[in-house]
Amino acid sequence: MCRTILFSILTVFLSLFAGATKYELKSPDGNIVVNVSVDNEINYSVSFNGEKIINPSTLGFTFRQAPPLGNNLKILSSKVFSTDETWTPVLKRFDKIRNNYNNLRLESRETKFPQRKMTVEFRAFNDGVAFRIEFPEQFGERENVITDELTQFNFSGDFTCWAVNYGSYATSQEVEFFERKIGDIKSEMVIGLPMTAKVSNECYVAITEAALVDYAGMYLKADNRSDGLTLRSALAPVKGQAENGDKVVFKTPHKTPWRVVMIGDAPGKLVESEIVQNLNEPCAIEDPSWIKPRRSAWDHWWSGEVKMEQSVIFEYIDLAASMGWPYMLIDWQWYGEFNPENADIKTVAPQLNMSEILDYAKSKNVKCWLLMYNTDVDRYNFEEACALYEKWGIAGIKIDFMDSDAQTMVNWYHRVVKTAAKYHLMVDFHGAYKPTGWRRTYPNLMTREGVMGNEYNKWSLRVTPEHMCTLPFTRMLAGPMDFTPGGFLNRNPDKFLNGTPANVLGTRCNTLAQFVIYDSPYTVACDHPDNYKGEVGVEFLQKVQAIWDDTKVLNGAISEYITMARRSGKNWFVGAMTNSEARELEITLDFLPEGKFKMTSFSDTEKIKQDAESAQKTELTVEKEDSVKIKMQAGGGFAAVFEPVE
């Protein structure tokens, strides 16, 4: 259903005061207020429940061949309306998503030469605010080159934030989100998105972007023109160019992505938000029924030495079949050495027989995915390769090592996803930039990396319990992340080793909980078949899903702990994780419907202190009136499935 109306002067007002034109836009529930003031330049500010979050902040652009844009502006027209619609996602965390917002659209023009037009659109949702700039059709076929976007986020206080500093725009976006003060962000830092901040105990915000289309990815930089509490947008330069080089090349009409301020009264409300997807266009695939979000085995790179051998591939196909996972990912070198000048993604390595592999997989009710290096994708006709993969019966492709969100690379991503969709191929990007909700429009874009995931356990001590408890409230706010959970060689810090076979920090129950907490419609389990055989918790991995009909954050504190409940059909799943502190939590089961449920849970025990692989399995009959105590050891977790008792 969809409802769009013009709304009254009581919802949005405009007034003239000291020469300024002022507008007020409220969220449908009235809790979020956006104030816009136009007096030569456009300023916006944001409040939540009467508490100021963002003080007046300006919008602007610099160009290579034209004066800066953002000053000497005059409003030509304004329009206000409301939208309330419900849509059904393909890659689900909820079976239905409500898209409800109030909208303010301001058309402006410079009062001085060259009198360019600029339209600003604001949307106020119950879970945040978004705005974007449109450049209407003007100046014919002239090419415009943006050298920077100067959107400000002028915070009302020196709030604690969790900000990732990439230090560069050429990045795989695989770095920790460290806790710091906004005032501690220095001009040399390149802050990635999302950036989450605690305004107060009853107000949390996150800055990110949505609908990144034909534009450069946004980062945040300290604004040296301010009091130290203002951040500004900074765009990824053209790949290979300096930071002060060209950023976006376009002809009018053109739009920026949405600049998003997610808002909630608890950190878990940010996790539940669907504002990023709501700001993207509806599904463009006429019949997406072929898109099947599920779990997958992964053949060797993480869990063993690189052995691109047919027998090894069969071993992982057998694992997928035994676990009830419909997919198996064939990793690098299936077409030979990656990234040489003669790499051909249509030619199978001589030691492999692809038809035998795919016939064997089919006999096990498993479909295969193929990995490729991004530069190899462009050496030959990618569309021909996709047509070949469809003929083979390949389910999807994983592409790695892009390490950029410059405008040209963003457009490359979109071309790849659209081409893959023509041939019924799903896509997983690694070495990737963060999501911006475009999976709503092209849901064959299943997941992506852009996260410091399990692979870092092979060579570092960086995937700590604190990091794992920070990700849901930071990186995951942007969208799915291919963390590749499932490491069953669980180790406490004193026994943790890098290398192969790969260990993971944290307990077995922490690993199980990741399958509930971390969003990824294509969930790739990382470990070797031998490490799953007969192990406690394997039966949970056979039941847990990759998409959900409902999602609830039951509790959580950034970098400390989180508990989530997810529904798939009639079954509910709960996952909880803690950082390096042992913790006891109590949850009520009021998310369950009426009736009795069989709860099968996996909990940390005192044995964890000597053996992080141990876990206690318990079966109980429970109802929604009951509560459950969750006791987690340091680096621990909890996982449970609730199945109706017929």
UniProtKB/TrEMBL annotation:
Q: Give residue ranges for domain Glycosyl-hydrolase 97 catalytic.
A: 309-451
Q: Does the keyword Lipid metabolism apply?
A: no
InterPro entries according to UniProt: Aldolase_TIM (IPR013785), GH (IPR017853), GH-type_carb-bd (IPR014718), GH97_C (IPR029483), GH97_catalytic (IPR019563), GH97_N (IPR029486), Glyco_hydro_b (IPR013780), Glycosyl_hydrolase_97 (IPR052720)
Carries keyword Hydrolase? yes
> According to its UniProt record, what is one Pfam family this protein matches?
GH97_N
User: Which GO molecular function entries does the Swiss-Prot or TrEMBL record give?
Assistant: carbohydrate binding; hydrolase activity, acting on glycosyl bonds
Q: Which UniProt keywords apply?
A: Calcium, Glycosidase, Hydrolase
| Domain Glycosyl-hydrolase 97 N-terminal stretches | 25-282
The Glycosyl-hydrolase 97 C-terminal oligomerisation domain is annotated at 548-642
Q: Which cofactor does it need?
A: Ca(2+)
Q: How does it assemble?
A: Monomer.
Report the protein name in the record. Answer: Glycoside hydrolase family 97 protein
What's the source species for this entry? Draconibacterium aestuarii
Q: What is the lineage of its organism?
A: Bacteria, Pseudomonadati, Bacteroidota, Bacteroidia, Marinilabiliales
